[in-house]
Design a protein that fits this description.
heterodimer; A: 108 residues; mainly beta; 5-stranded mixed sheet; 4-stranded antiparallel sheet; globular; B: 116 residues; 52% strand
């Protein structure tokens, strides 16, 4: 199963761009990379998914280099409400195992 | 996007009783659902994979007789915590895999269990 590694925590200020990088060295050919956001006492919420290169939606961008051994979630202009835990998941065949996640704290 | 609903969102029970948590996919059929447990400030821990019409597959260290999973239809999976004890107090979350084979998961709102 592909294992993911992310920074444990990050701090930022409102209005800044935040980039969270996840490493997944043993990602398989057919695996997709998906990022989720979780607020306290809520289930994770889908942010973005990609396979390679760059994906952008209304809330974030996802950058995946050619070797796909890492990915970077980019949140363009964070606000206080973006304070949450962010998880990078790699679709490992059938099961989906969560890593530790990154706790982002946005300050005013 | 697809919606997964859990019920109840909060439950308090006495030690020794059993509690059932429901997970429903509201607008799609889910042949596979997953159950997770999450302790404070920790990540989600996969407990079991629930397959419609067959026995659930449990992760190592998860007692199948204590955490009974039933996936009787394509839209409903249930987790029953039997003979609950205070150490079973946790946040339980279910998810269902979407139709596309891209691994996207849709999560329920979670159920907080407190065992007194």
């Amino acid at each position: 199963l592909a294992k993911t590694t992310q920074p444990i925590s990050m701090d930022s200020y409102e209005g800044q761009e935040v980039n969270i990088t996840c490493s997944h060295n043993n990602i398989a050919t057919n695996d997709y990379i998906t990022w989720y956001q979780q607020f306290p006492s809520q289930g994770p919420r889908f942010i973005i998914q990609g396979y390679k290169t760059k994906v952008t939606n209304e809330v974030a961008s996802l950058f995946i280099p050619a070797d796909r051994k890492s990915s970077t979630l980019s949140l363009p202009r964070v606000s206080l409400s973006d304070t949450a835990v962010y998880y990078c998941l790699v679709y490992a065949g059938f099961k989906t195992i969560f890593g530790a996640g990154t706790r982002l704290f946005v300050k005013a | 996007g697809a919606v997964v609903s859990q019920h109840p969102s909060r439950v308090i029970c006495k030690s020794g009783t059993s509690v059932k948590i429901e997970c429903r996919s509201l607008d799609f059929q889910a042949t596979t659902m997953f159950w997770y447990r999450q302790f404070p400030k920790q990540s989600l821990m996969l407990m079991a994979t629930s397959n419609e019409g067959s026995k659930a597959t449990y992760e190592q260290g998860v007692e199948k007789d204590k955490f009974l999973i039933n996936h009787a239809s394509l839209t409903l999976s249930t987790l029953t915590v039997t003979s609950a004890h205070p150490e079973d107090s946790s946040f339980y979350i279910c998810s269902a895999r979407g139709q596309a084979n891209t691994g996207e998961l849709f999560f329920g709102e979670g159920s907080r269990l407190t065992v007194l």
